[in-house]
From TrEMBL, chains A, B:
Protein name according to UniProt: cAMP-binding domain of CRP or a regulatory subunit of cAMP-dependent protein kinases
Keyword Cytoplasm: no
Domain HTH crp-type positions: 153-228
Organism, scientific name: Jannaschia faecimaris
Transmembrane segments: none
Protein's UniProt keywords contain Transcription: yes
Record key words, sorted: DNA-binding, Kinase, Transcription, Transcription regulation, Transferase
Record GO biological process: regulation of DNA-templated transcription
Gene Ontology MF terms: DNA binding; kinase activity
PROSITE patterns reported in the protein's UniProt record: HTH_CRP_2 (PS51063)
DNA sequence: TAACCAGATTGACCCGTGTCAATCGAAAGC
DNA sequence: GCTTTCGATTGACACGGGTCAATCTGGTTA
């Protein structure tokens, strides 16, 4: 079965970043800088607090990060996941304080690069600022699709879409094998991502399993059995299923 | 939101809109380009269809635009409003097709500038790319806050937040007088923005009115009577309220 | 091995929001 | 002036998803 034909629905979501630059010449400085500022974070550890001001650019080397916001009563909404290859904060205005809480979902290695060093890197590496732009465009596209589901999608559609979105992003960085991928999230966390209670996440996941659309081994290994149906449930317009390739830089 | 700090779009249609960049030297070319590509759109007219590929950058000179996405069944979610001074599509990847439907909410004047011309403008005007970055950062921040309300906010909180967000944005471009502003939206449209049915929008607006938090004259002139309570309902952290609302730049 | 614990699962019940439909009000057109 | 029309308003009712609470499961620690 040709999964790729179904992925075309949301090509923009697939602007998944990788660290493969189109032209590697001159990227030695980048490699060196990434290595110098590299550090690891245990799963669950807080990397940046909401409200704190940050003047570094994060490059995710491995693992998952969650970017979240909370209501005053403590209810948390995950705004986005950052996956390997992602760049965070590339364009925040100089005076802007980060209002996002950044947390390691899994063990994560990131390079936290001071803004000015990052700036000089991008100045010297046009491919890098191109990559930045692609990541920004991909982020906006992802946010838009997600807002659509948050505003107008049923619980089932939200779950289905989240699975597809993550499938596509992971696929772009080579972390999908066959039609299976590792989803390092509790149902609680997945719920915070799609705006549902963990209980209802459970109900929806079980329903999708019963329908034979997905299957789960353990509680973190997902296999997509019927991408066509899943996409349909997710509210992905079949008319937009066109041939396009995952943009790999 | 933070757009106005470095740019003011004066929506005087007769004299032509003027954009004030922090350093006006060299902006003559910008002025000329804006004027050359200027065009008007009647309220309700479609500017760009979802799925169409666009290779222009839009500068909003006057009026409101809505950027929206739809589910296959036609349910529409407004992703964002674009107000005077906004720049659309500044960084979309070259191959990226616009997946947003862009529509004029009111009579609108925009400059639709071909991507390559826009590129040469920003190359020559560092202030302009700085402005771009600020707009991107502001959009990102706005989307995050909105996703939080869509995922975790009650209907009342969503309405309250939407009013405050628009109040702040309009305030930044000088379109708030006292505590009143013109809201050129039907309840249906407001509902498509906050993810509620028009009927429930009505209920919430009426409730806020009864509470004495806002008042409406006609159905488009909003006055915020009690910003503290409104912000509280919106789930805005009181400590952060001063940062985002008070500052008139 | 047994106790333990976090997360998944399931059922019962409640409530917020959507839907439907009727009515009202005001602006626009004839 | 009268009619038309679109949007606001309100009530009645249905239902999706939240909440609470009771297991169940698998992995971890003593």
């Amino acid at each position: 079965m040709n999964i790729a034909s179904h992925l075309t629905a949301n090509a923009d979501v697939m602007n998944g970043p990788t660290w493969h630059l189109p032209d590697t010449s001159g990227s030695a400085a980048l490699e060196r800088t990434l290595k110098t500022h590299r550090r690891g974070h245990r799963a669950g550890s807080m990397i940046e607090l909401e409200g704190g001001k940050s003047n570094v650019t994060y490059c995710v080397l491995s693992g998952w990060l969650s970017l979240s916001k909370s209501m005053p009563d403590g209810q948390r909404q995950i705004i986005d996941f950052a996956l390997p290859g992602d760049i965070l904060n590339p364009t925040s205005a100089d005076n802007a304080s980060s209002t996002l809480q950044i947390e390691a979902v899994t063990y994560t290695t990131v390079s936290a690069i001071p803004r000015n060093i990052w700036g000089s890197l991008t100045d010297g590496l046009p491919q890098l600022s191109l990559l930045e732009n692609r990541i920004i465009a991909g982020t906006f596209s992802r946010f838009s699709e997600r807002m659509l589901r948050l505003g107008k999608g049923s619980a089932e559609a939200r779950i289905a879409y989240a699975l597809i979105e993550l499938y596509i992003r992971l696929s772009a960085i080579g972390q999908v094998h066959g039609d299976s991928f590792h989803l390092p999230l509790t149902q609680q966390t997945l719920g915070e991502f799609v705006g549902l209670s963990s209980v209802h996440v459970c109900r929806m996941v079980r329903r999708l399993s019963r329908l034979g659309v997905i299957s789960m081994e353990g509680h973190m290994a997902i296999t997509i059995l019927d991408m066509g149906t899943l996409a349909n449930i997710a509210g992905i317009d079949p008319g937009r299923l066109e041939n396009s390739i995952i943009p790999r830089l």
